[in-house]
Amino acid sequence: MALGEPSALAGLRVLDLTDLKGHLCARLLADMGADVIKIEPPGGDGARNVGPFVDDRPHRDRSLFFWFYNLNKRTMTLDLRHPEGAALLLRLAESADVVIESFKPGEMARMGLGWEVLHALNPALDLCSIAPFGQSGPYSGYAADDSVLTALSGMLYINGFPDSAPVRPFALQAYHSASYYGAIAIMCALLARDCSGEDQGRGQWIDLSMQEATASAVEHVAAGFFGAGEIERRRGTLHWSRFFRVGRCRDGYVMHCTLGDWTSLVEWVKGDGKARNPTTDLTAPEWEDVAKRRADAERLFDVLDEWVKDYSRDELLERAQLLRLPYASVRKPEDLFADEQLLARGYFHEVEHPELGRTFRYPGAPYLFTASPWRVTRRPPLVGEHTGEILGGELGLGPDELAALAAEGVI
Amino acid sequence: MAPETAARMALAGVRILDFTWVVAGPVATRILADQGAEVIKIERGDEGTMSVLGPRRIGLQGELHRNKRSAAINMTKPRGVELARRLAATSDLVMDNFSARVMRMWGMDYASLAKIRPDIISISMSGLGHSGPRSDYVSYGPTLQALAGFTHLMADARGEPVGYGYSYADMAGGYSGALAALIALWHRKRTGHGQFVDLSQFEALASLAGPALLDIAVNGRVQEAPQWRSQEAPAAPHGIYRCRPRDGDSDRWIVIAVRSRAEWECFVRAIGNPTWAAKPKFRTLYLRMRNHAELDACVARWAATEDAEAAMALLQNAGVAAGVALNGADLASDPHLAARGFFAPVKLPDDRSTRVTGVPMRLSATPGSIRTVAPEVGEDNDYILGELLGLGRAERAELIAEGVVWG
After folding, report:
1. Is B207:B129 a contact under the CB 8 Å cutoff?
2. I need a labelling partner for A165 at 20 to 30 A (CA). Which of A79, B2, B102, B314 fits?
């Protein structure tokens, strides 16, 4: 990737005050060229204590959890609860475009960093506040981790079998959903700031509730209730639309799909002599109707389960795709690293960690911009790596002042 | 849209020509429409009003297409394509979720669009991207989830793959599509240049698998389904527990996450200092995690006699993270979401009213809004062909008669 191409968000300064709930939000902006300065408490962000770690050796500069969410950011330590720390944050905010925070509602104001203060100091600044339940309402003081948020947003209840406990989403999807909406909201605020009219140059305060962001990711649940009065229940591996279900094949599992060209699928199944069982005959014309396939999905998939039993998952996938049937194999995440599509598109990026003398392979971009590319500009930062560069170089603090701040535990 | 409303929208004045369908693309353009972008949906008019996703104005489809305009243009006719190209010339963005072939066939791929409008932004949200040996794969959200490892890692207690009961991949695609559009608009404001964004829904989803991918790349560790082990800071108890039936419904569950020692002490006090909680084997977080199966059994026995909502209030008031696994009816009556007015009332054209999922981000000056319910297919033909393209009534009637537009 040519370094000469401009980054889309070059010139934007973002202060990232979040804990692990909001780390992805600022990273999405950093990946596109924003200068993101992560503010960590002295001793380092709590996410640095979360595993897995490089070689399974716990250390604050070896957390892969921290690495994933903090690629492309600079970092400095600053105790915001210390008056000197808060004062320095305000100096940084004077020239920043965006502040992102995930403190408990009210905590920023208690530290002297509330919206009114920031807005008076720098009217163009956008503040994005990400909190589990938003800034207002009866649950705004409630505590939550990602799994509690998936519960209270409706995302959890609908995965798994009806007779057993709901199955959790893999990875922290409540945090991810909120972080994406946070980044989207920030870009909207930046574009609004740039417009002509009375709001020109005026920043905004964004109240982002993680519960609401996550509930939006399963909007069919509320939509089903408001639209048809139906409560969406767990259906095992049957997708809520009834057009997908997991089937077991010879060496693993496949994802059935009955939304492709029905004639091609039935011809294939019939050719294998598996199109019927004692109660169901897929060659009957009624199955050509997509509404029928939806209404009697379980019966239909029972026939297809018998059919795929003797196939290997890769063989089934390849043959289905040749017929343009949207089947898939149920793969392991390790398989992604050998996936020829991802490799051909350059999805993975080698990132050098000079302090360890090693280079590691990172997953890449959610999108390929042709003129202002997503790129890796720096590996995730070590604790306090840029404190001197930012406070000394950019704010002009002298060595004595830095030493005094360190002695008082501010940095 | 009333002009005074438009003035307070972040994306007022942005026009998007929207060829997306099913879910992922429409989520992206809906997010932008909620913030004031004018989204012109181009769609087929010969498929009836009832799609596999349900009726148009309510339910999921109602949510996906609210705040949008619809024109029913027949893209299999050369004159239909010509109408679409003229609309593209007046648009800031063109978005689709086809494979590369379709837009090229219509002469509406980025290279062709840039000739009719040099600063245009084109975002294609295909399943697996426009390049590479698998770019022709046909996919849907659930099949991408299977390919990306999510289905495998969301196993039930027996270790069988279960996966999502819905298409999270469509949301990953929708979020990243909306963000890509905004970033490209920002870039254009700065430089005057448009560009093409090749968004692979598969890659957008894979990038949300999180630190597990680094664990594979760096440590070579084979990933197993985490079940109820915390995927962030260590916690124990950390799990889901069945509660007392409510109104005959035994499907009531609470999630509890206890991290620090202080939280453990609050938890124990809140549930009435049971004797098991004082056992040495549960004394530290390390021991609670080691003995979590036994700990979970104790918590489960406690929860079984509790009402889920009451247990949540009890624990939260003690400072412990806990939440009921809400279903659709619970969400609709959740007191917190109600206090924040999250589910927004809307009036349907037949005067019935319903509620819809609200705008999940609140900007203080340009908050976003739900202004119009989903249009029926082709409902805005007159506005789009008449006002935007300046076609007279007779011309529009002729287009309908010739099957170029479905009227």
Report:
1. no
2. B314
Q: Is the pLDDT of residue B265 over 80?
A: yes
CB–CB contacts below 8 A, A to B: 511
Q: Residue B6's pLDDT is what?
A: 44
Is B170 considered catalytic here? yes
**Beta carbons of B89 and B390 less than 8 angstroms apart:** no
The span from the CA of B355 to the CA of B368, in Å, is 17
What is chain A's mean pLDDT, rounded?
96
Q: What is the pLDDT of residues B385-397, one digit of tens each?
A: 999 999 999 999 9
| CB contact at 8 A, B138 and B196 | no
Tokens of A321: 């795709």
What residues of A are in contact with residue B334 (Cβ under 8 Å)?
A: 152
Instruction: Report yes or no: A62 and A54 within 8 Å, Cβ to Cβ.
Output: yes
Q: How far is A159 from chain B (nearest CA, A)?
A: 5
Nearest chain B CA: its distance from A319 CA (Å): 11
Task: Give contacts of B132 with chain A, Cβ < 8 Å.
Answer: 340-342, 344-345
Q: What is the DSSP pairing of strand B344-347 with strand A205-209?
A: unpaired
pLDDT per residue as tens digits for the range B177-223: 999 999 999 999 999 999 999 999 999 999 999 999 999 999 999 99
> Which residue out of B18, B170, B296, B380 is catalytically annotated?
B170
Strands A35-40, A74-77: pairing kind: parallel
Cβ–Cβ gap A360/B146 under 8 Å: no
Q: How far is CA B96 from CA A73, B158, B265, B375, B406, in A?
A: 32, 40, 54, 19, 21
pLDDT at residue A33 above 70? yes
Chain A nearest C-alpha distance from B142 (Å): 7
Question: What SS3 class is residue B242?
Answer: strand
Burial of A191 (C-beta count, 10 Å sphere; 0-12/13-18/19+):
buried
Mind telling me how many Å the CA of A126 is from chain B's nearest CA?
Answer: 10
- Closest to B344 (Cα-Cα) out of B327, B332, B330, B336: B332
Which residues on chain B are in Cβ contact (under 8 Å) with A213? 360-361
Q: What is the pLDDT of residue B99?
A: 87
B358 sits in the region (left: phi over 0; alpha: psi -120 to 50; else beta) called beta
Residue A289: list chain B partners with CB under 8 A.
Answer: none
Confidence band for A344, pLDDT divided at 50, 70 and 90: very high
Distances, alpha carbon B309 to alpha carbons B183, B252, B361, in Å: 41, 9, 26
What are the angstrom distances between the C-alpha of A176 and each of A171, A208, A216, B61?
9, 13, 12, 24
Find, in chain B, the residue whose alpha carbon is nearest to that of A253: B161
- DSSP states of A214-249: HHHHTHHHHHHHHHH-PPP---BT--TTSSEEEEEE
Cα Dmax for chain A: 86
At A350, is the pLDDT very low, low, confident or very high (cuts 50, 70, 90)?
Answer: very high
Which residue blocks in B92-167 are alpha helix, DSSP H?
A: 100-105, 110-116, 141-147, 150-153
Please report which confidence band the pLDDT of residue B37 belongs to, taking 50, 70 and 90 as the band edges: very high
Length of chain A: 411
The helix (H) or strand (E) run that includes residue A408 is none
- The number of beta carbons lying within 10 Å of the beta carbon of residue A230 is 14
pLDDT at B55: 85
**By the 8 A CB rule, do A299 and A238 touch?**
no
Say which amino acid occupies A78: L
DSSP state letter for B98 = S
* pLDDT confidence of residue B1: 38
Q: What pTM was estimated for this model as a whole?
A: 0.97
CB-nearest to A148 from B144, B321, B334 is B321
β-sheet bridge partners, residue A236: A160
Under an 8 A CB cutoff, do B59 and A321 touch? no
Mean pLDDT of B217-236: 96
Cβ distance of A204 and B321 shorter than 8 Å: no
